[in-house]
Amino acid sequence: MPGADDSSPRLLRARAPLRVSFAGGGTDVAPYPAEKGGLVLSATINRYAYGTLRTRQDRQIGIQSLDLDAVASFALEEARPGGDRLDLILAAIDKLASDSEQGFDLFLHSAAPPGSGLGSSSAVVVALVGLLSDHMRMPLTDYEKARLAYTVEREDLGLKGGAQDQYAAVFGGFNFIEFRADDVIVNPLRIAAESILELEYNLLLCFTGRTRVGDHIIDDQTDRYRSQASSTVDGLEMQKELAVEMKDALLRGNLTEFGELLGRAWEYKKQMSPKISNPHIDELYEEAIKHGAIGGKVTGAGGGGYMLLYCKYDAKHEVRAALAALGAEAVDFQFDHVGLTTWSHARD
Length: 348
What we know:
Blueprint: E1 11-23, H1 32-35, E2 38-55, E3 60-65, E4 70-75, H2 87-96, E5 104-110, H3 120-135, H4 142-156, H5 164-171, E6 174-179, E7 184-188, H6 193-202, E8 203-207, H7 217-226, H8 230-252, H9 255-271, H10 279-290, E9 293-298, E10 306-311, H11 316-325, E11 329-331, E12 341-345
Parallel strand pairs: 3-5
Antiparallel strand pairs: 1-2, 1-12, 2-5, 2-6, 3-4, 6-7, 8-10, 8-11, 9-10
Helix pairs in contact: 2-3, 2-4, 3-4, 3-5, 4-5, 8-9, 10-11
């Protein structure tokens, strides 16, 4: 890979959005897409992973990650420091910037912790890919950036998960994403502006109070698929069917139907692994439905993180209050329509 050839100081920024997944999650996790083909319907939101790269006049690399509570410093030619908290960052540096002739400092932070169900870890890697490719002056397409982020996270480090998060964070907006054995196709959706406003008016994002880190949900789901457990296989197949139905509902502006389909997607998602839900999540969901939510689901692998709830417009405040009484914070949000963004700034 070409090295950066300008020794003058540079300050680079990157912002990659987090996402909510409506349906299809799990069908992007190997080996399913290679064998059956995956479909995911998702959209990015105005919560972001941020990164700054500041070049140095020496050959040192400094790393500070607020979310991982990790700090490191080493020379370009030195062996990389150990520690699981830094693995993602170091793997991205090795993939894209091992030939850098300038040292640099990285500062990273995200709006949500790992395991939140909003694709935050992948968004951090996407932001890193944006920063490091700009630093190395590598002309990459959006597909190449997403593929690099996926390779770093899933192949180089072997971290469990699917491919939807990297593509969502790079492309941004509402997307219907197809996963095949050898390629990924991102189909941007042209949702009517009034439908997007209506979605934002009626949707709530609710933090369940815990993340899913350490729950091994994806391992369990994958093992069940490999053994052809009927509930898991059926759940995955229905995720694809519902992704298509929900896409059609969005394009037609049938948003009450969309909200109802969210609830159906959640019921079939729970079939994929008994670890996906738990009594606390079930209680939150039942309370939300009782107070006026039409449907909803956990936005990631499950076990914790965030829930997405579509509410009757005149009951949204009641849903919020009911969830707050159970210790869960429900908030409004807006959709992001841009995806990965990088820019330079005069050095402070």
